[in-house]
Amino acid sequence: MSTIPIAVYDACVLYKSQLRNILIRIAATEIVNAKWTVEIQNEWLNKLLANRPDLNKTRLNNTCAKMNTYVLDCLVTNYIQHIEKVILPDKDDRHVLAAAIQANANFIITFNLRDFPNGVLAPYGITAIHPDTFLNSIAIGSTHLFCGLIKQLREDYINPRVSAEKLLSSFEREGLRDTVATLTTMKHLL
């Protein structure tokens, strides 16, 4: 019996709604056991509100609450004890690694790979992975499941409807070039 890998989602991958939506949908499957902390949620939420004051804070707080309900056992707690033990290029990222250590994670999903050097993560059995690499590997390894999730995401857009091409274009704008290239070959499943 294989174990489901554990991945801590960094705040930067939860910031943009499309990517967050895909990652949360994947987290609800048995492909990955996704984790985050209240601190990680507050980080992306506060940054988003600072950059987009037009957004409704109550709605975003509801999004966080729904994430925590939709993905079972996602919140990591009791990770503070690890923060002082780790040294990273950006000390503000230590809480993410501390959460990954506490969760016995295999991966940290982040755009900021250089902030999580392999030499620091390796002793803990953790690897930092770009979200495009992560999602593309799922698209290739679990094609029908992944395409089904993307199709459902597309069909959830009712007014207005969103074509597969438009959805893939939005993924590309969010930095998912390899994933889009893979999905383009499977567009008939979307």
Task: Describe this entry's structure for a reader.
With 190 residues, the protein is of the alpha/beta class. It has 2 domains: 6-129, Rossmann fold; 134-189, no CATH class. It is 54% helix and 7% strand. It is built from 11 helices and 4 strands; from the N terminus they run βααβααααβαβαααα. It has a 4-stranded parallel β-sheet, sandwiched between helices. α10 (164-173) runs antiparallel to α11. The longest helix is centred in the N-terminal third of the chain and has 14 residues, at 38-51. It is globular, with a radius of gyration of 17 Å. The model has no long low-confidence stretch (mean pLDDT 93).
Short characterization:
With 190 residues, this protein is an alpha/beta fold. The chain has eleven helices and four strands; from the N terminus they run βααβααααβαβαααα. It has two domains: 6-129, Rossmann fold, CATH 3.40.50; 134-189, no CATH class.
